[in-house]
Amino acid sequence: AQSVTQPDIHITVSEGASLELRCNYSYGATPYLFWYVQSPGQGLQLLLKYFSGDTLVQGIKGFEAEFKRSQSSFNLRKPSVHWSDAAEYFCAVGARNYDKLIFGTGTRLQVFP
Amino acid sequence: EAQVTQNPRYLITVTGKKLTVTCSQNMNHEYMSWYRQDPGLGLRQIYYSMNVEVTDKGDVPEGYKVSRKEKRNFPLILESPSPNQTSLYFCASRPGVNTEAFFGQGTRLTVV
Q: What's the pLDDT band for A96 if we cut at 50, 70, 90?
């Protein structure tokens, strides 16, 4: 069965600092991988996705993520965090021809000025 | 504007009083789903639909019903809500089988 682990429940960074949010998945083949962001009181917005090809994917708002098959990871990165990045971030996995996404439990990001 | 619209955004109800949360998308998407979000559990799929009149259970379907009579609408029905259905609910749609999902703004439901 597929599963997604986001080991960090809560991360605090200073504005301008770099950021890495961790995501590990369990799946027998190469899955489809997604990062979503949920701002307070908002729905989920897609940041980026990996389906195939280049393992370093670029997303919106200056985010990128790298798929590492050997580590079953899809970590999200941003070189310089802005106060507006404070939100909850969800990693999600879908199998080929998926009916549903499997979500991690989320990482809440707090940004200090 | 392309979007998934849920109504209501907030709802407080009493145990046993039937309710419906509506979901509509204007992108002509084939697939639609309902998820619930609970602290420490992430999002879990309740039901999904691959097309009109085609629905199937997700991971946590107990206590919920859905229907897909039109392509754009996918209402979630709670026939007899209970306090353990207090949650944040999201509707999502996507164009095809291997595509990303677009989410609505969410409906925060409280059952007392």
A: confident
